[in-house]
Amino acid sequence: MKILDNSNKHLSLILPDIILKKLNKKVAEFKFIGGGSYGKVYKVLLSDGGIIAVKAYKLQEMQKEEERQLGVLSENTSVKMPEVLFTYEDDDTAILAMTFVEGHNVLNPLFLLKSRKVKQKFTGDVVSGMLEWHSMTNNKFGFLSNPVYDSWYDFYKTEMQQPWLCGLEKLCDKGNFSRKKLNLLKEASKIFDCVCPEDSTPVLIHGDLNIMNIMADTKSFNLIAFIDPCGSMWADREYDLFQFRNMWGDAYRLYETYKHKCSLSEYADFRVAYYGAMLEASMRLKGGYIVPLWEDLNFIRLKKEMKKLKEKM
Ligand SMILES: Nc1ncnc2c1ncn2[C@@H]1O[C@H](COP(=O)(O)OP(=O)(O)OP(=O)(O)O)[C@@H](O)[C@H]1O
Ligand SMILES: [Mg+2]
Questions:
Q1: Of 236, 221, 154, 141, which Cα lies nearest the Cα of 193?
Q2: pLDDT for res 288
Q3: How far does residue 299's CA lie from ligand 2's centre (Å)?
């Protein structure tokens, strides 16, 4: 797995030529505006006054996957999403250029100070937008490119749970992952195997709708756009929900509001906590950037839900 250079320095050497070839426009300036696990996003000012966003990835092919996912998701929600302008790749580079979205991502702590009413409106709009995806059904579970599984359990176990636990075991053996955390995930996996939903329908999910991937107007806190799908698939609807509590917890009551609008089955709280901890740990296997605090919060939530479940069973 080759890790690509998505630095400002690398892009400054190649981006002006690429944009000239692809869009027939000159670059006036560009600057880094944000980045998470696998991508770095740059705001590019063009000499004709236009602004675009360019995302550069650490791994090849991610630009094509994001293009596919943005295409399917934007067709199935009324919330705005960036429009793809082009993708480009060479041996050292993978990028996707898209329309620039105004506003700010909702990780900005200033949004926490908004009034309850304003926050409620924002949350209602986010959940409604997500429910539009969740009303799109498919006859198989799986990745958008190739959904082949008849059950959510088979899909999750085969493509995620087992490979991730195996990979984490190897990391543990090398001393690069906590044995205590792995044992907790193994124990939780056994419980999950007993309480996995049996009769769920495959629905379209974004897969990474945390507050960093939701853009809002800085003044009004109106929802502007959903961005950055990296795990869009045909899945059990609950698999879209753990990201709602990532980072500031459920400060905007996104998870609670979803549950209120669309009731979830028994054990959903445990499963959602389990999916969150598993995904966060799995980021270590894909060269992803780990924020130890987010990982710890996911594990604390999982422990809490396991305790609740044990008391109930
Ligand atoms: N089209 C866009 N217009 C304006 N700002 C954007 C756009 N795309 C991304 N951003 C900003 O850049 C930040 C990082 O972008 P994004 O979420 O796509 O990358 P990432 O989290 O690094 O990706 P990944 O989760 O795939 O590793 C966003 O939180 C947002 O603030
Ligand atoms: Mg993101």
A1: 154
A2: 63
A3: 21
Same fold: 8-99 with 104-312: no
Residue type, 61: E
Which runs of E-coded beta strand occur in 80-149?
Answer: 84-90, 93-99, 104-105, 141-143, 146-149
Q: Does domain 8-99 have CATH number 3.30.200.20?
A: yes
Residue whose CA is at the smallest distance from ligand 1 atom 4 = 101
* 39 ligand 1 Cβ < 6 A: yes
The verdict on the CB of residue 134 being under 6 Å from ligand 1 is: no
Determine the pLDDT at residue 265.
Answer: 85
Splitting the chain (313 residues) into consecutive groups of 10 residues, what average pLDDT does each group show? Answer: 92 97 97 88 97 96 96 98 98 97 96 97 98 98 96 97 98 94 98 89 97 97 96 96 91 97 92 96 81 90 95 82
Q: What is 104-312's CATH topology?
A: Aminoglycoside 3'-phosphotransferase; Chain: A, domain 2 (3.90.1200)
The CB of 245 under 6 Å from ligand 1? The reply is no
Closest CA to ligand 1's atom 12: 34
Cα 9 to Cα 15: distance, rounded to the nearest angstrom: 10
Pocket flag, ligand 1, residue 273 (CB < 6 Å) = no
Domain boundaries, the chain: 8-99, 104-312
Check pocket membership of 105 for ligand 1, CB cut-off 6 A: yes
pTM: 0.94
- Alpha carbons within 13 A on the beta-carbon side of 173: 6
